[in-house]
User: Which sequence fits this backbone?
């Protein structure tokens, strides 16, 4: 008999595991989170937090906490290429949507600006919030050893490292969020495809006051491009983690022919070289060695075992996609697990997790690797070649500053190389534009809209099923609210407009059959949510009397061009298909008796039973800055009354 019995066991307390814990708690699902290390990340590691991830923090009610500790977008504005920070600057690029040609795109796409926040800062935010929830049992210093699946669940063997004692956990589902050397993935037999060990680098974490070199050109990445030194990361790229006194220096090397000592003497000398100031006295905080991999799992699920984060996608840090993709994995899986554990959805719903997220992981891994390759364009434009002497390198660099046709060609070549860097540092379409083309979506038969601009650089909002719900500002009794805020917890939301009043009854009937609440929101009516800018009318891609059904993770599940007499049955059929349920109206009997070992507790259960609206002050799933808005709106209808 197991020592602990819990619906969900999460192995790994990195960004993916901690996000999964927060989400499951908000959905009322008891779980145990174990991490073999004594605490959260001890080095900065990943740091770019894109808009989609900030939106997930918003959903978890943690957006304000994140902004309180993160570097704001305006201080991420530049990528700088230099021979030293005190010396010659050879190029600069507007980054992360900060340029005058891109800022409006980023602002229009989301209510949330992107930020810079290293894992040493971000993980404690997630951990603090996770520990506030009674649904979570979080244990550091507890190591996963093995698991044994059967038809009804999973039995996992753990070791308390401090007590050197083993114990067993019985769970319905096991989440492997245990990083790039995932033992869960290995034991589950999940195949990892691709190459590993393509390059090696050392991170040197340090503190030094570099404000006089950086404050006038704020950014995250400062690329060292001094003639006669290994290009870029080989010489030492600086990542700014806290303006302007905390950094990581990245030095790549070939371990077959050279070594990078983890010594203060080496680190101080190299930092002084990069800065161009022999007098600075950096404080070395730590070293870490890492490798570049180009790998993705063939699938993310093996029965009752589901994997996420670096356990299933491993790639270079280019494009800043790793942390963001990991948290998005958790966001996709958590609501599905909650509904399945409660009995509100069939177990087959979990199969949509891999169907949806694995193609995204593949895209991310390939794009990150392509960005590594494209970095050589800058090296070539500067005139640098392998084994070049410092004198020859300076002579090549000097060609950029010569008059005449030859100099013009060199400068044009550098501009072209920098334009290519936009696919790494302003790739808005890659960051926000992924769509789920298979899984928990019901296509409407219409073709996807063709991209108007480069789909990697530019995000194009659409309500095509599988796409992320477009953001638009709406006005209600208490002020402005985003369309993204119309979704709370594990509830589905149906957005309609003037003339779509019949959708309220259709949603109520569909919810009665499936046991899953569907909130209905009327946009454009005088007494409802007002589309004063007209943005939603331009984005919805259905008639005002049509409807867009949105999943708990803000992806469009289904849509209808207009309201018809078949609306109720069409919506019900779509919802049952999404939930992987039979058409038996009694299928959801007892649906609320699983999570927590008994009845679902808190606002999720009350809303599901029709006892309260989402305006109830216990609606913890609603971000604090929009909770009053929900209270006033009562989300128009909670269609399970």
Assistant:
């Amino acid at each position: 008999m197991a020592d602990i019995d819990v619906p969900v066991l999460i192995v790994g307390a990195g960004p993916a595991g901690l996000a999964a814990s927060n989400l499951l708690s908000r959905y009322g699902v008891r779980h145990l989170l174990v991490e073999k290390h004594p605490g959260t990340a001890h080095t900065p590691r990943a740091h770019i937090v894109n808009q989609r991830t900030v939106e997930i923090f918003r959903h978890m009610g943690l957006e304000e906490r994140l902004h309180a500790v993160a570097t704001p977008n305006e201080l991420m504005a530049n990528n700088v290429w230099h021979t030293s920070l005190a010396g010659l600057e050879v190029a600069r690029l507007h980054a992360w949507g900060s340029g005058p040609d891109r800022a409006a795109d980023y602002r229009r796409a989301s209510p949330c600006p992107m930020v810079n926040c290293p894992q040493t800062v971000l993980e404690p935010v997630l951990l603090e919030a996770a520990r506030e929830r009674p649904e979570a049992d979080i244990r550091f210093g507890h190591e996963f050893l093995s698991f044994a699946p059967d038809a009804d669940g999973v039995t996992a063997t753990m070791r308390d490292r401090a007590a050197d004692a083993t114990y067993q956990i019985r769970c319905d589902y096991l989440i492997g969020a245990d990083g790039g050397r995932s033992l869960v993935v290995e034991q589950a037999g999940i195949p990892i495809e691709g190459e590993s060990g393509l390059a090696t680098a050392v991170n040197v974490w340090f503190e030094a006051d570099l404000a006089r070199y950086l404050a006038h050109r704020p950014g995250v990445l400062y690329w060292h491009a001094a003639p006669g030194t290994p290009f870029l990361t080989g010489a030492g790229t600086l990542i700014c983690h806290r303006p302007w006194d905390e950094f990581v220096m990245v030095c790549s090397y070939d371990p077959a022919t050279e070594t990078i000592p983890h010594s203060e003497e080496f680190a101080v000398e190299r930092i002084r070289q990069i800065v161009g100031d022999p007098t600075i006295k950096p404080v070395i905080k730590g070293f870490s060695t890492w490798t570049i991999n180009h790998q993705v799992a063939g699938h993310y699920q093996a029965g009752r075992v589901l994997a996420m984060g670096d356990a299933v996608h491993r790639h270079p840090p280019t494009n800043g996609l790793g942390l963001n993709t990991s948290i998005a994995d958790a966001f996709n899986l958590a609501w599905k697990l909650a509904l399945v554990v409660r009995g509100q959805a069939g177990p087959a719903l979990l199969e949509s997790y891999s169907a949806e997220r694995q193609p995204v992981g593949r895209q991310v891994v390939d794009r990150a690797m392509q960005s590594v390759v494209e970095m050589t364009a800058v090296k070539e434009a500067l005139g640098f070649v392998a084994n070049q002497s410092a004198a020859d390198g300076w002579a090549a660099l000097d060609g950029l500053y010569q008059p005449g046709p030859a100099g013009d060609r060199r400068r044009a070549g550098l501009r072209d190389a920098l334009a290519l860097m936009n696919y790494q540092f302003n790739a808005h379409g890659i960051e926000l534009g992924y769509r789920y083309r298979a899984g928990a979506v019901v296509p409407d038969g219409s073709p996807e809209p063709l991209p108007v601009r480069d789909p990697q650089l530019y995000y194009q909002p659409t309500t095509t099923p599988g796409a992320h719900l477009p953001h638009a500002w709406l006005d209600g009794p208490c002020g402005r609210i985003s369309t993204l805020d119309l979704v709370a917890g594990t509830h589905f939301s149906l957005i309609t407009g003037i003339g779509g009043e019949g959708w309220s009854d259709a949603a109520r009937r569909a919810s009665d059959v499936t046991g899953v609440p569907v909130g209905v929101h009327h946009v454009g009516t005088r007494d409802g949510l007002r589309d004063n800018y007209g943005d939603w009318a331009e984005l919805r891609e259905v008639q005002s009397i049509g409807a867009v059904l949105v999943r708990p993770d803000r992806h469009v599940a289904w849509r209808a061009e207009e309201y018809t007499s078949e609306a109720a049955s069409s919506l019900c059929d779509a919802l049952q298909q999404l939930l992987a349920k039979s058409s038996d109206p009694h299928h959801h009997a007892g649906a609320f008796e699983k999570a927590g070992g008994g009845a679902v507790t808190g606002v999720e259960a009350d809303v599901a039973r029709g006892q309260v609206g989402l305006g109830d002050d216990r609606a913890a799933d609603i971000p604090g800055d929009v909770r009053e808005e929900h209270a006033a709106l009562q989300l128009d209808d909670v269609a399970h009354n």
Notes: Residues 583-641 have pLDDT under 50 and may be disordered. The first strand starts at residue 4 and ends at 11. The chain is about 30% helix and 25% strand.
